Amino acid sequence: GAHLPERIVTNAEIAARVGKPAEWIESASGIRERRWASAETSVADLAVAAAEDCLARGGSSPDQLGMIIVASGSSAANGFPGPAAAVAARLGLEGTPALDVPMASAGSLFGLVMAAQFADAYKDVLVIGAEKMSAIVEMGAGADGAPGAGCGRQLRRPTVSCRCAAASPPVGRWQCRRHGSAGSTAHRSER
Q1: How far apart are CA 14 and CA 146, in angstroms?
Q2: What is the value of pTM for the model shown?
């Protein structure tokens, strides 16, 4: 499961604002287009949409979750509390531990490693990486290759291998496997 805001911002749109060719933006950032969330959309909104998609695709329901981990560096601008508690509440999970990992990019990988450790005690752990960089980065001068917004998730079960395909190149595919009591490993492979 995943969720992306509907608005697509192309390099051509950014190029017009920053005075650089669209091709240069792609060569400098590796980004062709990004998603832009509306001002009314929160990181928690993105995370809930991705969580619901993940659970539906996995044939699970929120009441089967033992824990939620939400990684987001862009939610830090809102201070405390982070989005994890709001996501849990909106999924109807009173009393379910909800942990924030206030870190962009690698935060999702840290969340997956943490989920592998918590899975023995909490069973199904939902890990969500949600970013709304469109609220932090002003699209104008200096916004070369400006990142956007989006959300991915992964359900970690104690005995099930999970796979997550990244939304756009050049990230590639990540496979996360549980290896007994030794924890988890993440492997990157090209598409």
Answers
A1: 8
A2: 0.71
